[in-house]
Amino acid sequence: MNLNLNNKNALVCGSTAGIGKATAIQLANEGAKVTLIARNEDKLKQVLSELPNPENHSYIVADFSNPEELGLKVAFFIKNRHEEDFGFHILVNNSGGPKGGPVFSAQLDEFENAFTQHLKCNHILVQTVAPFMKREGYGRIINVISTSVKQPLDGLGVSNTIRGAVANWSKTLANELGQYGITVNNVLPGATGTERLTEIIKNKSAKTGMSEDEAANDMMQAVPAKRFAKPEELAYAITFLASECASYINGINLPVDGGRTKSL
Questions:
Q1: Mind listing the pLDDT tens digit for each residue in 228-247?
Q2: 14, 96, 111, 191 from 157: Cα distances, Å
Q3: Which residue segments constitute the domains of the chain, with CATH numbers given?
Q4: Considering the entire predicted model, what is its pTM?
Q5: Please, is 94 exposed, middle or buried when counting C-beta atoms within 10 Å of its C-beta (0-12, 13-18, 19+)?
Q6: 189 SS3 class
Q7: Average pLDDT, the chain
Q8: Using CA atoms, how far apart are residues 38 and 185, in angstroms rounded to an integer?
Q9: Which residues neighbour 250 within 8 Å (Cβ) at sequence distance 6 or greater?
């Protein structure tokens, strides 16, 4: 199977660490021209230098707390490219999850901030890039969310709530855009070796009195594979969905979780 992404342009959000960074590298390995987007320019420059043929790739500095500004920056970037008709064939929506805690004690602004960072930003990016995808007859929108859309996770109340909203938004969008050769799918990471997982382990340790190693091992025992995922394993799934090989896969939730989620 050849996932050849030559002549494809990809916009990868949250691409300075974890799943986003691994995805940017894998897409570039398959021949895509990658535009990184995150808020820390120094980290963006570092990741850019790690991509194969860095001169073929670029980055945008943007903050996901302001959807309107994010949309304007991406639109400005597209407009000011030297290519005659530039746009993105692939959009990977990926950003860090809300802080943990029970849903009952969550403050209203926690829901509002998470809704803005995830659903609103995803939405404005799709509105910005979809016209080009329609003209090309090729589009891949991949949202990195959470297995909590299938099975809510204890202690992640706000995340469970907002991830569910994103999943339903995505399914609705898939129905609307499928006729244009655009697919919209969700990748649902299980426990993956990222900074986010480190934070969750620390919180579990503080709450239970376990050491961090004990807390991590306890979490791994809930996974049939008995280990955490590597970010690259998520990136492989995302890259497949971004390819021509996945052209008839649309509107799905794809868990990449080592079998942890108990539902089908």
A1: 999 999 999 999 999 999 99
A2: 22, 15, 10, 16
A3: 9-190+230-256 (3.40.50.720), 191-228 (no CATH)
A4: 0.95
A5: buried
A6: strand
A7: 95
A8: 22
A9: 174, 178, 183, 184, 185
CA–CA separation, 193 and 197 (whole Å): 6
185 pLDDT band, cuts 50/70/90, is: very high
Q: How far apart are CA 67 and CA 153, in angstroms?
A: 27
Strand 90-93 and strand 139-144: pairing?
parallel
Q: What is the pLDDT of residues 44-77, one digit of tens each?
A: 999 999 999 999 999 999 999 999 999 999 999 9
Ramachandran bin of 227, using left for φ above 0, alpha for ψ from -120 to 50, beta for the remaining angles: beta
User: Is the per-residue pLDDT at 14 higher than 90?
Assistant: yes
The answer on pLDDT for 29 being more than 90 is: yes
The residue among 83, 75, 89, 85 whose CA lies nearest residue 34 is: 89
As a whole number of angstroms, the distance between CA 94 and CA 125 comes to 11
Distances (CA, A) of 123 to 104, 173, 203, 246: 27, 10, 31, 22
* Burial status of residue 76 (CB atoms within 10 A of its CB: 0-12, 13-18, 19 or more): exposed
> N- to C-terminal Cα distance for the chain?
26
Instruction: Find out whether 33 and 57 touch, Cβ atoms under 8 Å.
Output: yes
3-state secondary structure of 248: coil
Q: Is the pLDDT of residue 13 over 80?
A: yes
Q: Which amino acid is at 144?
A: V
Beta carbons of 123 and 178 less than 8 angstroms apart = no
- What is the residue whose two structure tokens read 């791994």? 220
